[in-house]
Amino acid sequence: MLRLYNSLLGNNIAVAPLSPPEFKMYVCGPTVYDFPHIGHGRSVLTFDILRRYLEHKGFEVNHASNVTDVDDKIIERARRGSQHPIALARKYEEIWWAEMDRLNVLKPKSAPRATDWIEQIVDMVATLVGSGVAYISDDGVYMDVSQVEDYGLLAQQDLSKVQSSERNASEHKRQSLDFALWKFAKADELTWSSPFGDGRPGWHSECVVMSTGILGHDFDLHGGGLDLRFPHHENERAQAEALGYGFAQIWMHHGFVESQGVKMSKSLGNFTTLTEMLDLYDPRAYRLLVVRAHYRSPLEVTRELAEEATSALRRLDQFAQRMGPILDDPTVELDESGSFLSRFEDAMDNDLDTPAATREIFEAVKSGNAAFDRGDFRTAKTLASQVAMAMKVLGLQPGRVEESIPNEIAKLATLRMEAKRSRDFAAADALRDQIHAAGYLVEDTLEGYRVRKS
What's the subunit arrangement here (predicted)? Predict the structure, then answer.
């Protein structure tokens, strides 16, 4: 059974959907004002792999992820570029989905834009004001966090030491941690009408309305990056609790992407855009980097690690290419007792332990090649079939390897095959060693042999 770390409780819990086989999950999506960076890539890949694994286990995943298309950062960026904020948001939203396609990310079943939910946001804010847990100030409507009994539970820290993330922090609020539900319009800003005054929604209100509007008041999982745990997710939870919703059963947060030990982010100016990363490397290499680190751990991304991941991908591709003929051969039976897939699933069931699951894949590749070399095609086919299934779960579909082999190496490989056919195994082994010394490997296949770089 799959167990996941619940950030709210601080421990691993069994995943038990509220309405099986449906699994309802909401993941905080992008604020579209710039190119996505590789930290965003980690986020979408983390939840893409969770979704793929849930579907592998037979769940029907109802996956919703929003697009924040009205926000302070969008307005400021548009002002600097003399653009309309919505036009700017649409431009970067289109870029976002293009990069997600390059990463082979499954698109959410629902991808709501905040601006399409203004009416529902206004209704929710009015309900909170009417119940006495929110109040109208001179610059907007604020949530009174003192009215939420367990406010701070998700943050798991002493909130007396936490400064409010709101820029207009003190004079408009009853206490510093109160947060904006609705911001009154300033000159030349996007604005919508409301009973409290013209303005626009606060960020924390948007996700509550969209998640519950699509998935219902109670759903299975809410996810995002560790930086969203507080204040964003805590503030979402506060509103939902004040409304009497069960809201998310599991809160799941992934670690940061780091550059030399420092969190990578747009605000720090140390990010590499996802576009740059995917232009330089096979997009699957970044996915492999992500799965080699546990989702709750920091992820270091360097050129050296990206090149190492590219090399590792090559081994997976070569294995898939070598095993292709026996996978298609109906005369080679599968061994139903193969245990690799159960070890892979055990790792994934343990809080998505993708590093352990990935190690199992590479061990299976090694064992599959060894089985093929000794003529045990049944074991080789079994391992190849299960590796293909595991790679699909991780979103690592194999690619085709095209290599240019020098004529002298190709000639040695041909002489080796002739020696083997003549049963001159000593000569065949000597030729194999020559090939290996030159930096190449020769592998036998059902059709004969193939040569690749070692």
Answer: Monomer.
Is the torsion defined by CA of 296, 302, 306, 309 positive or negative? negative
Over its length of 454 residues, how does the chain's per-residue pLDDT go in tens digits?
999 999 999 999 999 999 999 999 999 999 999 999 999 999 999 999 999 999 999 999 999 999 999 999 999 999 999 999 999 999 999 999 999 999 999 999 999 999 999 999 999 999 999 999 999 999 999 999 999 988 999 988 777 666 544 444 567 898 889 999 999 988 878 899 999 999 999 999 999 999 999 999 999 999 999 999 999 999 999 999 999 999 999 999 999 998 766 666 666 665 678 998 999 899 999 999 999 999 999 999 988 899 999 999 999 999 999 999 899 889 998 887 768 999 999 999 999 999 999 999 999 999 999 999 999 999 999 999 999 999 999 999 888 765 666 767 767 777 787 777 778 778 778 888 887 888 778 877 766 777 777 6
What residues have CB less than 8 Å from 429, skipping those under 6 apart?
A: none
Spatial separation of the C-alpha atoms in residues 247 and 215, rounded to whole Å: 10
Same domain, 110 and 174: yes
Specify the pTM: 0.87
Are 202 and 119 found together in one domain? yes
Q: Which residues are annotated as a binding site?
A: 28, 207, 232, 236, 266
Same domain assignment for residues 248 and 344: no
Query: Distance between the two ends of the chain, CA-based, in angstroms?
Result: 39
Domain at 162, CATH number? 3.40.50.620
d(CA 62, CA 127): 27
Give binding residues for Zn(2+) as ranges. Answer: 28, 207, 232, 236
| Residues annotated within a binding site for ATP | 266
